[in-house]
Amino acid sequence: MATKTDPIIARDGAQQSARQTNLNEINITATASTEKVYDALIVGGGITGMTAALLLQKAGKQTIIADAHTLGFGTTGGTSAHINTFADTTYKEAESAFGGEGAQLFADAIQEGHALIKANIYDLKIDCDYENKSGYIYAETDEEVKQLDDIYDGAIIVGVPVNYTEDVPTPVPYKKPLFLSTVAQFHPLKYLQSLQQAYPAAGGTISENTLITGIESADGIHTAKSASIAIRAKTAVYATHMPPNINLFNFECAPYRSYVIAVKLKSGSYPDALIYDTQEPYHYVRSHTIDGQQLLLVGGYDHKTGHEDPEKSFADLGKIYPQIL
Length: 325
Fold this sequence. Notes:
Oligomer: single chain
Number of helices: 7
Structural class: alpha/beta
């Protein structure tokens, strides 16, 4: 494990998510080797990195995960954990950019990701609050109706189950809604911790509190450096949203900030569904019972990191459904 001299990244925000409390920590006993050349180094220990590492390890590769903090500390620890059949980029937008084949690959990748989560839950007998849910997307204006129709048309083209419906369990008036039958939700950290236990059992190595500051490549070997250790591997995988430091991805991709709050409802009546609007930026709600306490998760107000006012965004989330909060 990394030494205490490694830089530690402070969590962005003062509050833990409701899912980060009352979780038992997993003891990590394996130590990263400075002499060994691993088949693959995976930088980032969220769901993406842990899944990739476990799959490679099961395929007979010798792998190591390096995380700047602790496993699930970043996006995985703060996600509202919807498992969707759609993405922020619509299938019509994907078709326009990459053609019909590209849009289909996009849809298939989303479906395969969901299938992999379900397979891991079954194979590893993971208790992570996984539930199939009904999903709804609704439009409140004529312009949003056009956007909703594009979502419908694109989904039909790539074979994603979607239908128009009449009713959405929301107090907000709407003009037109869609129904999605193949969405789900789960507890991401309970899921990740089970993968975290399975990975060392398969022979994998985890190095927490190990901030990779750069990778040098020579003669087919990649040497990743942190403050306390250098890790050598034949292949390096960044599971960090974007690779750190200045690189091409900085010009192609923009990091976004998203917000979510967990609240109790005065009415005690919680929607048993995943619900999204089509505003720009959009919002969503769903409920989840954590430690016996039912909560409504209200999220959205995505914007480019460094833009807008975070305090205002959090405050505005509480104004979406004022009649029920």
